[in-house]
Q: What sequence folds into this?
């Protein structure tokens, strides 16, 4: 990574803000309707953007990682979050429902193959989608790799990351009675799904604050700020629901065990060296079993998409594929 990123904020690396040329609510069944938008070049190379969380939702800034004259950018809010409805719902909301939704978007928009861009949980979902549909995934561009393993959950919710952020960890854990502190995911689950909106919101904000504070190396430990109640409730409930169910994967380590399906799918992994939420060991483990991957470690960066070095590398990755003849044929 060049030194220029050290002196800039993330926005300076991005393409100018753009508005969608298409917005719709797509009925995907099971009582769910998901928000979908398209921006950029309607006849360009298609790329679908998978947001993090689960439960994070997409944002206008996510449109700006792609040359709008070249890419047809598709963003959507996954089930239960953002503008999708019903809000904060975990009914009929599993990884495999989301994979099916991605395919529903692709076929609805008449796309044969597309690139897949995702970070954190979005990287997880991109990998699972690519493994399940390697003929539809032309390339993967991933940031802050999360492999949905028990070891990763133990790191973040079992005290590993807390050893580096003991003051923030204390705030997260102090809300839970001592006799429940052997399993914070389960303890928070009981309260996030208690049926008491006040209690759910309180614990949702605490859950979101723990993650948000650790997202960027720029944070000082003073706290990640209090998330709006509606956002925090969807984010925390969906994350907790997925983590309680081990991502709805058949076995621990499922992604690495099935990564062979990506042998003909190229990809770029962008990883912050000081990522406290998704430590680099996961990105390197993935790179080792995925021959078509290239890994870029950003020296002075953590987990957040908004880190200058992370943004610079992601834009660089998409610009690199812009010049790729095989990718141009997708248009």
A:
């Amino acid at each position: 990574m060049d030194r220029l990123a050290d002196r800039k904020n993330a926005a300076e690396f991005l393409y100018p803000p753009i508005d969608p040329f298409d917005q719709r609510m797509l009925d995907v069944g099971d009582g769910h309707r998901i928000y979908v938008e398209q921006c950029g070049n309607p006849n360009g190379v298609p790329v679908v953007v998978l947001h993090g969380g689960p439960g994070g939702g997409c944002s206008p800034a996510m449109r700006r990682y792609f040359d709008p004259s070249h890419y047809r950018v598709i963003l959507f809010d996954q089930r239960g979050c953002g503008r999708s409805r019903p809000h904060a719902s975990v009914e009929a909301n599993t990884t495999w429902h989301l994979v099916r939704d991605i395919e529903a978007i692709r076929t609805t928009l008449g796309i044969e193959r597309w690139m897949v861009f995702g970070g954190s949980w979005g990287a997880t979902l991109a990998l699972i989608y690519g493994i399940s549909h390697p003929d539809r995934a032309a390339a993967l561009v991933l940031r802050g790799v999360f492999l949905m393993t028990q070891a990763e959950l133990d790191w973040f919710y079992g005290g590993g990351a807390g050893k580096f952020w003991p003051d923030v960890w204390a705030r997260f854990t102090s809300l839970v009675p001592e006799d429940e502190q052997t399993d914070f995911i389960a303890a928070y689950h009981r309260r996030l799904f208690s049926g008491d909106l006040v209690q759910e919101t309180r614990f949702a904000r605490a859950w979101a604050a723990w993650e948000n504070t650790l997202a960027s190396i720029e944070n000082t430990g003073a706290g990640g700020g209090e998330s709006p109640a509606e956002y925090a409730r969807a984010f925390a409930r969906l994350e907790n629901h997925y983590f309680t169910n081990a991502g709805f994967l058949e076995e621990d380590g499922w992604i690495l065990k099935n990564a062979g399906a990506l042998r003909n799918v190229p990809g770029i992994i962008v990883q912050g060296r000081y990522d406290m939420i998704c430590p680099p060991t996961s990105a390197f483990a993935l790179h080792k079993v995925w021959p078509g991957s290239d890994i870029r470690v950003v020296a002075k960066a953590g987990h957040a998409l908004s880190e200058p070095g992370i943004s610079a590398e992601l834009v660089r990755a998409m610009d690199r594929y812009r010049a790729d003849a095989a990718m141009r044929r997708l248009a």
Q: What stands out?
A: Strands lie at 22-29, 32-40, 45-50, 71-76, 114-119, 137-143, 267-272, 293-298. The domain at 3-149+248-328 is CATH 3.40.50.1820 (Rossmann fold). Residues 1-5 have pLDDT under 50 and may be disordered. The first strand starts at residue 22 and ends at 29.
